[in-house]
Amino acid sequence: MNEDPKGLIREAYRIDGIGPHECRSILLDWALSVPADADYGALISELLRVYSDVQPEHPMTATLRDGLAPAAPPRRRGGRKGRAAS
Q1: Which residues make Cβ contacts (< 8 Å) with residue 61, sequence separation at least 6?
Q2: Residues 63, 48: Cα–Cα separation, whole Å
Q3: Domain total of the chain
Q4: Mean predicted confidence (pLDDT) in 9-13
Q5: What is the average per-residue pLDDT within 30-51?
Q6: Burial degree of 27 (CB within 10 A; 0-12, 13-18, 19+)
Q7: pLDDT the model gives residue 75
Q8: pLDDT at residue 86 above 70?
């Protein structure tokens, strides 16, 4: 499957008891394994098409859906708060 070159997503669906944290880690590893110029949204949509009907309640399905959500714009903190350690 071109959408999952290392089979990471496929294997995530096979792991019993996998949780959301592990799914996010696997998704990040997956993102690093596809070409940098890839259309991540299209790839994730295709992965959802393949897996979401079969296992709609799986944590990886939710993680893939989250991967399609638009990211919040970055916030810049200026002044002392931006330089001070939290």
Answers
A1: 48, 51, 52, 55
A2: 10
A3: 1
A4: 96
A5: 94
A6: buried
A7: 79
A8: no
